[in-house]
Design goal:
The protein is an alpha/beta fold. The chain is built from nine helices and five strands; from the N terminus they run H-H-H-H-E-H-E-H-E-H-E-E-H-H. It has three domains: 55 residues, 434 Repressor (Amino-terminal Domain) (Orthogonal Bundle); 98 residues, 3-Layer(aba) Sandwich (Rossmann fold), CATH 3.40.50.2300; 39 residues. The chain has a five-stranded parallel beta sheet, sandwiched between helices.
């Protein structure tokens, strides 16, 4: 019967080998450490037989990879961010990654806490809709060569960014309405310093 509560130590004792050997085999590093194919097969066959599943965090610490991406947005329930999150999750799944996501609600302290928590979880990369006040932590991650893509608002110098041409899109929308014969064109927005909001207002003006 499968026993998913076994530890690497239990497997090592059963097979009469070291814990480090079991860990290397499970985490795909056996060949580079010149562990024999026969011993690799012995470990993998036993692991499969007992249904052992390594702890996700322990495995990521051992391999340096978690096959996970952190998605940080203002509000995951928002009608804009929700569909984007679903598309990112589907694409990530197709490439063997899972997505962990959380909402900042526009609060810099919350954003920094979320990102620091994700960093401790050894995520492989980040997709972030930045809020004001996270420049420092993002620049630290870039310096550490952690893959990051920012999107939607407030690009940070030196960091990959994907955004909408908000100014041009607003100009196009207003021009379209104007060509339909309308002259009193209103624009409803928020009192916000976020780049996407200010770009739309600039396009309207």
């Amino acid at each position: 019967m499968a026993n998913k509560k076994l530890s690497i130590n239990d497997i090592a004792k059963h097979l009469n080998i070291s814990k480090s050997t079991v860990s290397l085999v499970i985490n795909g590093k056996a060949s580079e450490r010149r562990i024999s194919k026969d011993l690799q097969k012995k470990v993998l066959d036993y692991v499969k037989d007992v249904g052992f599943q390594p702890h996700h965090l322990a495995q990521s610490l051992a391999t340096g990879r978690s096959n996970s991406i952190g998605l940080v947005v203002e509000n995951i329930a928002d009608s804009f961010f929700g569909p984007i999150a679903m598309m990112i999750e589907n694409l990530a799944k197709n490439h063997g990654f899972r997505v962990m996501y959380s909402s900042t609600l526009g609060d810099p302290q919350t954003a920094n806490e979320i990102i620091n928590f994700f960093r401790r979880s050894q995520l492989d990369g980040y997709i972030i809709a930045p809020t004001i006040g996270i420049d420092k932590i993002v620049q630290e991650m870039v310096a550490e060569k952690i893959p990051i893509v920012l999107f939607d608002r407030d690009p940070i110098a030196g960091v990959h960014f994907v955004g909408t041409n908000n100014k041009e899109a607003t100009i196009e929308a207003c021009t379209h309405i104007f060509t339909q014969g309308f002259r009193n064109i209103g624009f409803v927005t928020l009192d916000s310093s976020q780049s996407q909001m200010s770009d739309r207002l600039e396009g309207y003006k």
